[in-house]
Predict the structure.
Amino acid sequence: MNRISTWMLRNTLKRKVFSFILVLLLCFLSGFIYTFYVTFRVNEQINEMFSTSISLKAMNEEMREFESHLETYLASKNSDSFVQYLDTYNLLNARSKAIIAGESPYASNLQLKNIGHLLEAYLDTSEKAIEYKRGRNTEGYLDAYGDLLNIGGYIEHKVSRLEALDFEVNLENYQQLTAQFAEIQTNLVIIAILLIALSVIFVFTFSVGVATPIVDLSEQAQAIASGDYHVKRVKGTHFKEAELLRDTFYDMASHIQEYIDELKDKVETENKLRLSETEKLKIQNSLNQAELMALQSQINPHFLFNTLNAGMQLAIIEDAERTGHFLEVLSALFRYNIQSLQNKVKLSQEFENAQKYYELMKVRFGDQFTFRFQCSPEVAGTEMPPLILQPIIENALIHGFRNKTESGLIDIRAYLSGEHVCVEVLDNGEGITETDLERLNRGDFTKVSDRVGHTTGLGLGNVYERLRHFFGVDEIMVFESVVSSHTKVTIRLPRKESESC
Amino acid sequence: MKYVIKALEFSIIIALLTLSVITFNKINQVEISNAQSYREDQMHLAIVTDEISSYAYQRFLNGVETEVKAVDAVFEVYEIGDLSIDDIVQMLLITEVDGVVFRLSDNNLAGKGIDACKEQGIFTIVVGNDAPESARDIYIGTNKFNQGRQAATLAIEAIKEDGNIGVILGSEYHFEESSVSNNFIGGIQDVVSKASLVELTEVAYSSQKRAELIVDEMLDQNAIDLLICTDPVDVNRIIRVLVDRNRVGDIKVIASGDTDEIIDGIEKNVIAASIVENYEELGRFSVRFFSKLMSGEGVSAYINVPFQILDQNNLGIE
């Protein structure tokens, strides 16, 4: 019982199909039963219409038999005929009694009642004839037999009258029935049409109810197949299996989405790691390259320092103070230059080294160049990679004044600008063409780096890469120039620390 | 859409249920009617007649049918022709009728049947043509002598006391020697004999020859100026002949009955007047007085049913 109620309450596909077929069957079964009932009623009415005629016909046949048996008996006194007479007598007697007593369903008809009385008299007369025959009263039984035939004639007359009357009544009944059943037939046709319409709607509703969730799911499956895993959860009450399928499908799509997201994160992380490794390798490569170049120019620093110290002592002995100072500055510059490029220095140290370089250049070029240094105390402690400023100054010196005869001015400034520490190297040299300027600002230093001259060997490309990797920002060096006017290189260092110069 | 379909489903189901209930009721209401219902306690009346086709019989039957419903009786009709009066009486006795109405033009036949029935204690009523010699319980009818006198009076008035009168007696008068015919003709002659310029020249029975042929012959012989006709059906036939022979107005007509055709004829002055014998009343009285006999009430042995005159005056035509 519990199982049945549970089954009834659950909206399953099985129950839906069962209910659908049951409803359709019931619809058509009720239509069939209805039609059967109508047919039954028509048949019943028609039977009723003709039952009197059928009954009277049977009675007439029995009377013929009865008269025949009676006549045979009266003529021959044959016991077999008497038995047969008795049999038919009993049949007719029963019929007569039934009609008179109103047991016959159609005995309410006056003419039939008359026939019943006549039949009774007919049978009584036959008994009289038998009695006369047994009493050997020939005249009596012949008279009685004659009377019996007369009464038989009356019955026939009544039967024919009744049948004529019946025919008229039945004709009217037939017309009435035809009219009534024509109306009923119209109703039945309408009922059949309504049943068909209802069935069509049921079929439509059922097919839509069953197909909709599956069609929705198939559309979403197509979307997933084309790579769209963001399935919108559609709500709606369907049969249990469809809801289960839908929920499972959504769960599956959700799991796939989560898995894909995880994979994406993983790939992204791996890519980042790989990029980081590449960057590290690049930095390492730059450093190695710089160090290699430094080593190439400093084959034996101890030998070089010892030699420079010997020269410096020689200059002191010979009272050549300027030479001694020159060698001292050169020695300090070399010492600064050969340090590891992985070291961190302060901006003030860079400025000091640039000043030493200027002193050496002044010995070499005299008053042809003037260097001006201006470092804001608040940015002096800014940490940065070593050997940044010197290569830029060297570059300005070599490229800016290569073909220039006038005295050159190189202005080196460091100041705070918002969250950045700006280091500018401004020269009034030849300037840079627009093409080169654009290339440099794009970070392409190949041509510049390839050039050789009287420098430390570190190209702008190396400077740019080290700055970028040290501070982790791309746009760190900006070139501005007007041909035949000036060139300005600005390094924008993210501010890390503030210290006096 | 979903709600539209639901509404449609609901409407169809309601329509189906309503139609099914209506049709079911209709099917159950289908009943065939039986020829005549009968109960053992109902009075059983038999009518014995020798004609069933006349206007008078149809009206008489209408009256019987109306009255049997009122007194809760059933009736059946025996027509002399197929069966002899003896056979009919035999059947009446066997079928245990309570009463018999004899509507016969032959008084002798009626008398035999009446006496046989009376021996068995069956009430007998004679209608139309009396059988005064028999043991009948009641006679119901119109005074035919008076009716004849009235017809003759109207006729003489119509022909302005000068002319020949012909009479065509309808199916009710088909037996020449019956008292009805004799009384009616006697009544006419009684009046005609007193008018010196009027003569009853022709008496014919439409039961023996069709009325059209009778009129044709009379017109050919120039024997009549006025026709008295006792059967409404014959009146129509006569009028048709007069119209065909362009003798309307020349030959006056005294009709019987109050059919639409007769009233129309009076209005158009084709028919001078009509004597309306109330045949329905005869039928009603037959059943009513039979019922009184059955209940043991004292009833007069002679019931007269009066007749009426229809002419332009009492139809409101000037």
Residues 14 and 239 of chain A are 9 Å apart (CA to CA). Residues 9-196 of chain A form one domain. Confidence is low (pLDDT under 50) at residues 449-454, 497-501 of chain A. DSSP finds 13 helices and seven strands in chain A.
